[in-house]
């Protein structure tokens, strides 16, 4: 490897995309080719391009018995939520889901099928949280709303027909960071929830790692340029990058619920999940690490056509159900 440049996926010829993922990725970029230079786009343009690219992947899939738009009380505003029930009238465990998108992109529509697949896999309602995004509402707004959603659902779920006493948190990418932060929040912890937490390819505080250096060039989608774009719009000029909520690996990780950690092999954030797994174990906690080989960051969005992605979602759902049965 030449000195003076970041490592890229081209330096590891043995690492190859899953063939189904390769086909899906090509189709995705055909819908919005300028997502390769997402960091150069205005935020609203980036959001529109992302919606367009993801729309085909939300078609089809499990049919819900009901879908309801509602709100939970938040620290500065009512927080919009979407409740997806796979079966009518069933009192089943609830999954509170936080979508990804770097705290800047994404919404409940962009992750609609992911939530429906998760509801079908767990057999219980999924509650998607439409949390605050930057740059309109910067850090720590999303973190505060995530914790408030846990507190509200655990205490007031009954008014929405939800059993907040049997609660699972789940999130992908930025949503995984929010789910972990909610688990660490004192007010949320005081509720005794959740029973388990499913974290898919999150960023948990590493600023340098082998995977970040290896995939900095963004050969498989997410790279350092995109990560810088998200940091810029999420934190803004006055944000504190040293806030403990942005670096959970440096804090006290004891007393957490059982964690399912899914790491994407071809992802600059891969080693964040590995580091969190071992620190949880060192703190005496329960953690299962699952490495999704041949898959890049964001793979859950492609569960309709990538078998390995669908298997990873199912593995997390099975972990949650096992924890609830304990």
Radius of gyration using CA atoms only: 18 Å
The H-and-E topology, N to C, reads as: HHEEEHEHEHHEHHEHEH
What percent of residues are in strands? 15-25%
Helix/strand/pairing category = alpha/beta
The overall average pLDDT, rounded, is 93
Strand line-up of the largest beta sheet = 1-2-4-3-5-6-7-8
Number of structural domains: 1
CATH topology: Rossmann fold
Distance from N terminus to C terminus (CA atoms, Å) equals 49 Å
Low-confidence stretches: 1-14
**Count, helices:** 10
Let me know the CATH homologous superfamily: Alpha/Beta hydrolase fold, catalytic domain
Largest sheet: 8 strands, mixed
- Give the overall shape: globular
Corresponding CATH architecture: 3-Layer(aba) Sandwich
User: What's the β-strand tally?
Assistant: 8
- Residues in helices, as a percent range: 25-40%
Top CATH class: Alpha Beta
Question: How would you characterize this protein structure?
Answer:
- This protein is of the alpha/beta class and 326 residues long.
- It has a single domain (9-325), classed as Rossmann fold.
- It is 36% helix and 16% strand.
- Strands 1-2-4-3-5-6-7-8 form an 8-stranded mixed sheet, sandwiched between helices.
- Mean pLDDT is 93; it is low at 1-14.
- One of its GO terms (cellular component) is cytosol.
- GO terms for molecular function: sterol ester esterase activity; triacylglycerol lipase activity.
- Residues 96-300 form the Alpha/beta hydrolase fold-3 domain.
- This is Acetyl esterase.
